[in-house]
Design a protein that fits this description.
- Helix 2 packs parallel to helix 4 and helix 20 packs across helix 21.
- This protein is 35% helix and 18% strand.
- It has 23 helices and 19 strands.
- With 740 residues, the protein is of the alpha/beta class.
- A five-stranded mixed beta sheet has the order 3-2-1-4-5. A five-stranded mixed beta sheet has the order 12-11-10-13-14. A five-stranded antiparallel beta sheet has the order 18-17-16-15-19, covered by helices on one side.
Length: 740
């Protein structure tokens, strides 16, 4: 009724009215309830021991407490009677049962304190009983901390009781269960409410045989402990040295610091002038001494105590016969004591290979020798009194990462040679997959005019056959006419590949510009796909680039026989002769020196047998077909014989990688590179940043997109020109700084 906020004059709901009427009908049964006014009966003998037993229990409806006085006479009589009881309804706010059980336990403790003061009895033992193992676990806890609600109530319980006074009772034997759940008058008379549980009437109380488990950290009432681990870091001067990237600045800073210390000690007058040479030399020795004490502390102590190091042939320091000079600096003993050299050169200071100061010194003296090689840098270090353990490796490592040295001397990037593309390993008809290139110009004479003519080379990527067409000029129409003539003679071409970019000079550059301006729809109508390799990547078209050299050597020999300038028809005839000679070359050295072996494998063996279909016709063609009158079976047998020998003799010869056998580091986005330009000196090669990488099927990067640097900026620091992006193979780049 309170939860529903019912007023006194409001009618009850249909749910509450039957319960209210039932409670009213039970009121008449209260007349049968009788309570003895005296705690002990009349015939009870002299009391020997008095005990107060407090029972607590809770439910979702409420929680209650009842207390019993247990008296034991000298003759062993036992009597129990109800002394005090109290119950409360559960709060309207939803609360967990363990919290209600804990609240009932607190009420039991308060009743105990009150009864001790009011009963005025001496030597009364208190026992507290609960059927909640969770509450017993909270009371026994000594290790974990609770949230405020539980912590305050546990503190109140421990102020008046000890954990040994709390015992466990089952719910069936707990009379406080009646107070937490409620009883009718008839059930109250028949229950153990007034006399207490049966075990209180026995001579021996039940022992607490139940073991309460330890609290888990996941218990909702347990506060999560946060451990703060404080590390004390000693900020030494060696660590502060890492803030400097230049040896000269570090020496100046330490020299200024030493001067400040001397001024603070009144050892010298205050001076704002620049540090002197003597102060800087003193600062250099101080820095070296600090580094040595942090790395060679054990060896320095041994030298101070014994005067020499213990024998250790594997130690690099032992071989140098080190000693401490008058300033406490570890120096090389060596064998040059009688040399007429400066003492610091005869006995250089020893430094470790991995120290930050060592890197600063190598950088300083590497710049002093104008970024020369390892030997000159090491000599400069030794000449200035510095001996680095493992100096050669340390200097080599530094020079390898030096940006200027990379810019001056590092080679272009390399990557493992890629696998052959599928079009070079398919048994397709000749010129199904072609590489295309142009060469020339050639000068011909038409009447009184001298004109330029160019050669257009098509190379079959599979059979290595070549086809040459003559170009009158480098216009789009001339190229389309030559391409149509080539397709009419050799059949449809599935794919045309070509180079592009700066590797073309003269006629090649003009030819590519004409190709880019062509209508791509015209090429699609011809049934071929045009693929262009990245600029400056001539090695990606080596299959047809190499044939130009062969054609030039043959053409030079033929043209040498003509004393006059050719006309167009004569040049076309000569190009056909060149094509026939090149196509008759063996494509494999197998069986070339065998006089009784089969005919060498050449592209001409296949060119005269090309069919209009890609795959051979069905059927089994054998050697006897050579002697049949059916010519088509004879031709097909020869074609099959060519492809059989092509797989056996030529294709397997492509297995080895002639160079670039090792997998290198892949180029990554944000790498800083310089772009190779064969027409310009190295010191003017343009700086660029890798913006996109194009991994191949094997995961190796062989092509990248570069953002070219531009130093032309306006007064606000913005670019004056549009950003330039270029695609280049990695073989045309030199890495200066890696992204990682």
């Amino acid at each position: 009724m309170c939860r529903d906020k019912k007023g006194w004059d409001e009618p009850l709901s249909s749910e509450l009215k039957p319960r209210w009427e039932s409670w009213l009908s039970n009121l008449k049964d209260l007349a049968d309830v009788k309570i003895n006014r005296c705690y002990l009966p009349k015939d009870f003998q002299a009391v020997q021991k008095l005990q107060l037993h407090h029972f607590s229990d809770a439910s979702v409806a409420g929680y209650g407490v009842c207390t019993y006085l247990r008296a034991i006479s000298e003759s062993g009589q036992i009597h129990c009677s109800l002394v005090f009881a109290k119950s409360r309804v559960a709060p309207t706010k939803v609360t967990t049962v363990p919290r209600l059980e804990l609240s009932a336990a607190v009420v039991a403790v308060r009743i105990s304190d009150m009864l001790k003061a009011e009963l005025e009895m001496e030597n009364v033992e208190d026992f507290f009983w609960t059927d909640s193992q969770v509450v017993l676990g909270y009371i026994d806890n000594e290790a974990r901390r609770f949230h405020v609600f539980v912590a305050n109530r546990i503190q109140r319980i421990k102020e008046s009781t000890k954990s040994t006074q709390w015992k466990y009772v089952t719910s069936e034997d707990n009379p406080a269960d009646h107070a937490s759940r409620g009883l009718t008058a008839k059930n109250l008379i028949a229950s153990n409410w007034f006399g207490g549980p049966s075990f209180l009437w026995k001579e021996e109380l039940p022992s607490r045989d139940i073991k309460v488990r330890e609290l888990d950290a996941v218990d909702p009432e347990v506060r999560k402990s946060v451990v703060h681990h404080t590390l004390t870091k000693v900020d030494s001067l060696v660590e502060r040295f890492r803030k400097f990237s230049s040896w000269s600045r570090l020496v100046k800073a330490i020299a200024r610091l030493i001067r400040l210390v001397n001024e603070f000690k009144n050892a010298q007058r205050r001076n704002n002038e620049a540090t002197s040479l003597d102060e800087r030399q003193e600062a250099e020795l101080t820095i070296v001494a600090i580094v040595q004490r942090s790395v060679f502390s054990k060896e320095i102590k041994e030298l101070q105590c014994k005067g020499e190091l213990a024998k250790n042939k594997t130690s690099k320091l032992y071989r140098l016969n080190p000693f401490l000079d008058h300033k406490g600096i570890l120096r090389v003993g060596g064998r040059l004591e009688r040399a007429t050299l400066h003492p610091y050169v005869k006995h250089p200071a020893i430094l470790p290979k991995t120290s930050h100061i060592t890197g600063l010194l190598i950088d300083h003296f590497h710049q002093q020798v104008q970024h020369q090689g390892r030997g000159m840098t090491i000599n400069e270090l030794r000449a200035n009194g510095i001996w680095i353990l493992g100096c050669s490796q340390a200097v080599s490592s530094f020079i390898y990462n030096c940006v200027k040295c990379r810019k001056f001397r590092r080679g272009t990037e390399e990557q493992k040679m890629a696998d052959l593309p599928s079009e070079r390993m398919e048994t397709t008809p000749p010129f199904t997959y072609c590489g295309m290139d142009c060469f020339g110009p050639f000068y011909v004479k038409e009447r009184r005019k001298e004109l330029k003519r160019y050669g257009l080379l098509f190379t079959c990527l599979c059979s290595r056959a070549v086809h040459i067409e003559l170009l009158d000029d480098l216009s789009t129409d001339a190229f389309l006419n030559s391409l149509r003539a080539f397709i009419a003679l050799r059949g449809n071409v599935r794919q045309l590949q070509s180079d592009q970019g700066t590797n073309f000079v003269g006629a090649r550059r003009e030819f590519l510009e004409a190709v880019k301006e062509m209508d791509q729809e015209s090429l699609k109508q011809l049934g071929c796909e045009f693929v262009m390799n990245p600029p400056s990547a001539s090695h990606m078209g080596g299959a047809w680039e190499r044939q130009i050299r062969t054609i030039r050597s043959v053409l030079t020999s033929i043209l040498d026989q003509s004393s006059r300038t050719l006309d167009s028809s004569s040049l076309r005839t000569y190009l056909c002769e060149v094509m026939a000679i090149v196509n008759s070359r063996p494509i494999t050295p197998h069986l070339l020196n065998d006089p009784i072996g089969p005919q060498p494998l050449t592209p001409n063996l296949l060119l005269t047998m090309k069919s209009s279909i890609i795959l051979p016709p069905p059927g089994d063609f054998v050697k006897e077909d050579l002697y049949l009158r059916k010519r088509w079976r004879r031709v097909q047998y020869l074609a099959n014989e060519f492809w059989h020998r092509w797989r056996k003799e030529y294709l397997l010869s492509l297995q080895q990688r002639q160079k670039w056998q090792k997998t290198r580091r892949n180029a990554k986005v944000n790498d800083i590179v310089i772009m190779q330009d064969d027409a310009a000196p190295r010191n003017v090669w343009r700086l660029a940043k890798v913006t996109t990488v194009y991994p191949s099927a094997d995961g190796c990067v062989r092509k990248v997109q570069l953002l070219i640097s531009d130093s032309a900026l306006d007064d606000n620091g913005k670019r004056l020109c549009k950003q330039t992006y270029l695609n280049r193979p990695i073989h045309k780049t030199v890495t200066l700084l890696e992204a990682e």
